[in-house]
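Good morning C.,

I know you're traveling, so I'll keep this short. The sequence:
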Amino acid sequence: MSDVERIGEAQVAFRNANETIQASADRAAILGNIPFVCECPDGDCMELVQLSFDQYEAIRQHPTRFFNITGHERSSVDRGAERIVVVADELTVVEKIGVAGEVAAEAYPRQS
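The C-alpha cells, ready to paste straight into the viewer:
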C-alpha cells in the first residue's frame, strides 16, 4: 500500500468514528457544537474540532472532504493526497484527490 493510500485509509477511519459521534449526538438531541476528532492522517492525533451539526453535514455531503485542525493537512497536501478547500480560523477543510480520493469515495458511509 502506498503512502497516499495509507493517508486515505487513516482519514476514512477518523471519518467513520465521527459518523458514530454525529449519530450519538443526534440521538441525544445535543444542541450547539459537537466535539469531533480531527480527521488528519496522523493516527496518533486525538485533537478535537468543535462543529455544529450543520457545519458537519455540509462537509459530509462530499465523499472526499475531511476536516483538520489547521496545519494538520500539510503532510497530505505535500504528498499530493489532498487539496485545501477552505481555511476558517483553526479549521481546514480538505478534499482528497487521486488515489486517496478514490479510497475515500469507495469507503463513503452514506452511499445508498
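Safe travels,
E.
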